Amino acid sequence: MTDQTADSIPIEKPVKPKGPLVYRQSIFTRVTHWVWVVALFFLLLSGLQIWNAHPALYIGEQSGFEFDNTILAIGAENTDQGVRGFTTIFGHKFDTTGVLGVSEARGRQNFIGFPAWATIPSTRDLATGRVVHFFFAWILVATLAIWLIASLANSHFWRDILLKPRDVAGLPKDLVAHATFRFHHGRSYTPLQKLSYFVVLVILFPLIILTGLTMSPGMNAAWPWLLDVFGGRQTARTIHFAVMVLLVLFFVVHIAMVLLAGPFNELRSMITGYYRTSPGTEPDAKETSK
Prior knowledge:
This protein has about 290 residues and is an alpha+beta fold. It is about 50% helix and about 15% strand. Strands 2-3-4-5 form a 4-stranded antiparallel β-sheet. Strands 1-8 form a two-stranded antiparallel sheet. Strand 6 and strand 7 form a beta hairpin.
């Protein structure tokens, strides 16, 4: 009988401790979240279809040949190299052939603002684009109203969205933690999360809805003060477009943070409501079997 050597003794790897599983997201938060995902997808692509009908943005109440208030324009021009797509921003022209102005669709050159793959429908169909856009716009409005009422009733708005003095004081530290990918998983949102959701839900969503209403002649007759608030229909259209860009940027960063922070845990919280917190963050919470 031979003695076991030290090399033959199996070494157990330390088990990383898990924090408790807590109920973090209410049914209202989860349902409205996924409705917004669908609604914003169709709003973005149908909105680009509408925008392609006149791919330019202005500041002011009017636009036309006699005005010099264009801040963004996408189009095609004949050059020595053939037809090229150009995007002009505040007077600075950029060649964007292949993406903006001139792109390829079904093997043919398409002289249009945004390419066909980025619009709903993919063909030039302004009427259908408007129907789709307005349908999901009212879905967004209704869902936002339901979320606001539910969040005020269950204190989600006061607890997780509204920034408090301690949240403002903790923003720099939380910003550094996110920048260095040191994520804190707790029952409550971090200061940076609160700021992000507050900006989107309290500022950007209402702003994109109100500027959309300002572009409607019917709403101009009912609420003429909207034109004064936003400085005219053309300025409202520009703000509407800018808010859309900000929402897209938020979506990109949001998805990146979900992937970096742990997609399984994040998705579970938005599907079942349960969220795995970091060890020590919820000392009194009872572990839920999983």
